[in-house]
Amino acid sequence: MAQIGFALPLEGYSRGLTPGAESPSTSPYMSNVRPRDTLEGWIRLGQRPGMKKAYTQQIGGGASPIVWIGSVTSITG
Amino acid sequence: MLVTGGIRTSNKTVWAYKDDGTALWNYDTGGTVYGIAISSIGHIFVCGAAADNGDGNGTRNMWKLDIEGNYLTGAYVDSNATAWSIAVDENYVYVTHGVGADRYSHDLGSQAQIKSSAAAFGAINVDSSGNIYTGGGGTSNTIYKYNAAFVQQWTKDTNDGLKSIDFLANGDVIVCASDNEVRKYLADGSSPDAGTWAWVHPSSGHELRAAVDSNDNIYVVDWNGAAQTDKRFVELNSSGVLQWEIDRAGDLDAIVITTADDIYVVGDDVGDYSGFSVDVSGQALDDLIEDDATTLYAVDWTPLTITESRYKKTLVAISNNEVWYGPTPGQMAEFAAANGNFSTTKALAATEAYEKIFIANETNLKVFDFVNTKLNTADAGEKPCTRSMVLTGGTSSATMVVDYVDGITDNSAANIYGKRISVQTFSSGETVTGTNSDGNTVSFATSAAETAPPHWYNWTVFGNDTTNYGTMPTSASLVSLYRGRLVLNDDKNPHAWYMTAVGNPWKVLYDFNNDDQLSAVVHSNARVGIIGDILTTYIAISDDLFIFGCQNSIWVLVGDPLAEGQLIQLTNDTGMWGSRAWCIDDKNNLYFLGNEGIYRCSIANGLSKPENISKLKIPTLIKDLDLDKSLHRVVIAFDPVNNGVVITRTLLSDGTNTGYWLSLTTGGFFPESVPASCGIFSAHYYPATDETYKKFLVGCADGYIREFDNATKNDTTTASTTAISSYCLLLQKLGIDDNHRGMLRDITAITGGGASGGDFSDTDSIAYSLYKADDAETLVEDVIDGATAFTTGTWSGTGRKNKIRPRMGGVWGGIKLANSNASETWAINNISGEVIPKGSV
Q1: Residue B214 φ/ψ, nearest 5 degrees
Q2: Residue A63 at interface with chain B, using a CB cutoff of 8 Å
């Protein structure tokens, strides 16, 4: 009887070699997971963070893509 | 920061404190202070008894200080002795005095009369719609409501002079007059004179002042003057019903409630303290401002600190032919002057430079200017303005250093943009003069008072003077800043790049005679005799390296183009996809989408040759993405919050997307996708001065700015939320070799969270599906094709799960973990099992 561990694919996605020849720390089939979890920020497999609106305003006033976003520093005092 | 004002003590009348009561600074107006109002950018407006504090500025009853307590300007309201109350909004300052109420511009220069009165006015305030409420103090017993154009809406008889005005969330008005009452008036004016309701102090002779918190709770302070008993601090609910009160010795004259609903009150000293914080839950006042010789009549609060007010970092976003920016933290608003003045359906690039945003939008070259003051004139005058000259207002004595003008033609209109360096401001109709760089006298009359930034205007050469300043490219879609030069391309000559003169974005003329090595320059990247490659990307690496990404090559400019700089071809093995498909991480590694995948090169010590980091793990990346510049937007952006690189390809037409998260913690690529409405079109790490807003932001397909948030378990779409579908396949060989099977007898999983509840956050459920096959490729194919699993189940709860005993045999085994439930997320620590031999295949 042998003890085995299913390695968590913390090195991400890989399709460069045939399945089985890849590093066990990779996976050929995955989506929306990251190697740092959202619960405690630890390095372990977990679902990616969700997207939330950072501002309530809809830029452009309608469903149109934001083609550029940036910031500018200016002196006030 | 709290700012208080009151009786002159030790030649001081205005005092600033941290929220914990630590003294910061003080200022002397020369007389008693009765009112304080602080603007959103930390300017402090003070009103009180007329006084001359000997600083050479004469008698005033209004003062404007900066956030460090330095005097900026002042005014003498209607030559009357005392200014009693003051309020401020984004545009104006409102003040009451002995003969009514006035409105001023923020520089206290432009005055407009709201109401003239025979008797003194007391309180004044302005609601979120710009409606002004004010009215009588002393013997005048009326509250007035005016709209922003000073048109009276209604009046009520308050039975005594006004002491305070504040607002409920719906705009209804909470008013205190001197007759012991707190009254509510409906904003529409339909309440009777006695108010919709009134709370009456049990004793007579009390002057009350009230403030409202964000939950419409009303807090009341009490001044009684001579009497020293029955002075109360009171909480009422929004219907005027008493919640609790405390009886204390000593008057309380003013109250302020912060944006976090912290409450501070000031008044007479009690036990050596004249300022207190309110403990609502404990129904008590806690000592805060220690001064046993001061009576304080006024208080206001600002979230700004002294260091923050020196500069600001404004977020800017562009969508739907509109430019939006954040004039106040946490809010975005449209800058209306830019509306429709350019086209977001055309290629657009922008860069920050000189406190402005420079935009290259093909034939629309624009400037969004956050620094300059603007003057306009109907006649630019005989002698033209030149850059860096000083202009002085003949009436106001205001002064400005010229940055840019859009016209220099005599008898023609012009706008002049420059940095005002005086406290005084330019007024309408005054003659402005100066000496230009040729030694000639410039003179013109202003058509209007100065306009404060921001401004939106065409990016042209100085004065549109092509003879002396050159000709801008007619169409450009790349822009950057390098060594003080703005760098543009020319869509009509796609191999050519322009660099403006150093420190002068308004000059593109090559003028070595006058500008020496600082001159503007035009060049291309090619061997002699060959037309250069088409430019696709500009990347400035501080002031040392400038990268020209081209279609099939990459060039690097080391140093300055006119001061012994070198132009080198870094590689012709790959080009760069485009202006948003690159980023630099916190270790000075450059990542970009090249011709054959994702590349990385170090810029820490010079520039290394790019390395294709996706080739080994995702050899078909480019084929899979099937890129087409007419169909797709590619964004590559470094997210310092989560320590990785976002790589996305988004369909321009509807936001449908695919991409990867490149983890800089483990070096792996992790496939990701988001809902189409959240498809990423732009990204920016916003280094806000307020930590609350310092975030990695993405500009999305539906016009919303979003962030990746660890506490958010769904994706927030335009008007709803969408569950995140996450899954991952773990492969494990069960047999001792390819010709022997193993039997997976049992599996144990440990999911995230430790014990349920507790200090560590708990995972939600994880669905598992087990697969087996005699070769790994067949197993993976079965999973992808959705074949029936050997067995399935769900791990619910946290920590070590009960063993499952699948007794599954094969050469290879696989576990697919998944969750697509709304409002759930998961994390797993490890999965282990026991295998026994099963025999030959």
Answers
A1: -70, -15
A2: yes
